[in-house]
Amino acid sequence: MHTSTPVIFDRQALRQHQNRVARSLDDFSFLFEEVGNRLIERLDDVNRAFPTIVDLGSHGGMLSQPLSRRAGTQQVFSTDAAKGMLERGCHQQARILGCDEEALPFAESSLDLVVSSLSLHWVNDLPGTLVQIRRALKPDGLFLAALFGGHTLHELRQCLLEAESEVEGGASPRISPFVDICDMGMLMQRAGFALPVIDCDTIPVTYDSALKLMKDLQGMGESNILIERRQTFSRRETLLRAAERYERMFTNDTGRLTATFQIVWVSGWAPAATQPKALRPGTATHSLAEALGATVCGLDDTTGKG
């Protein structure tokens, strides 16, 4: 990680959280499993073999079996930064590797495929990590990832902010500034990926209470690791006020509370001479945005988080 990169996340705290939850992660892994299954489905649409695969930030090797079963796979590396997650992955069908997503140990042009499912949202230097991934891929190697998007947990973010302001007279950052879909497209282009594709899913999850949601986030190892986070325990009155606001504002027709998880999907290829070439600007007769009914996100767009 470059010294000039702003440090937003406390990576040591992240490892501590992941070590603490590693043994009980099966009780809270439903979202990791759902997004992992969707990632494998997307990968299955790519009709080619990837002999050497890295699962970056694997949550204890959750994807090692489906990746190992793919035709043509020779070696799968399941990486994690936390010791507890590495120990959790020891029984999986992959080579376990301690690896910080901000300092990849792989040689240039050594990998055929890099996947990452709900891990890169905690990286301080995401542009630098993307460049490292692209360099580690062989020509025409594929990068496929899922990250939490900016709309994730917007309900909880709002309720905590308002409750803390009411009870304590001020608010501290509690939920991460997740990546925006338009920003991600720009970052992929700047990292040198060819044929980048960015899209998103929204996964609504319902809960009996906001406190149960907070417990699940803690059990997933997704607690607050912002450098500027409050260093003391939250006041009980603040949490109860946030839970009350959540129930009042975000209860659905069945009486349950809705929590939104936006998943940003990212794919791109390491450049190769055999890849299709883009048309010169202005020569296309129809735009992809028109065909999909999508919103165009230009390189100069500045979209707020959350």
What can be said about the biggest beta sheet?
A: 7 strands, mixed
* Number of beta strands: 7
Q: Please count the helical segments.
A: 10
In one word, what is the shape?
globular
Compute the average pLDDT.
87
Query: Cα-atom Rg, whole angstroms?
Result: 20 Å
Domain Methyltransferase type: 54-144
InterPro entries: Malonyl-ACP_OMT (IPR050602), Methyltransf_11 (IPR013216), SAM-dependent_MTases_sf (IPR029063)
Pfam families: Methyltransf_11
Protein name: SAM-dependent methyltransferase
Structure description:
By secondary structure, the protein is of the alpha/beta class. The chain is 33% helix and 20% strand. The chain has a domain at 11-152 and 176-205 and 261-271: Rossmann fold. A seven-stranded mixed beta sheet has the order 3-2-1-4-5-7-6, sandwiched between helices. α6 packs across α9. The longest helix has 15 residues, at 30-44. It starts with 10 loop residues before the first helix and ends in a 14-residue tail after the last helix.
Which key phrases capture this entry?
306 residues, alpha/beta, Rossmann fold, 7-stranded mixed sheet, 10 helices, 7 strands, 33% helix, 20% strand, globular, disordered C terminus
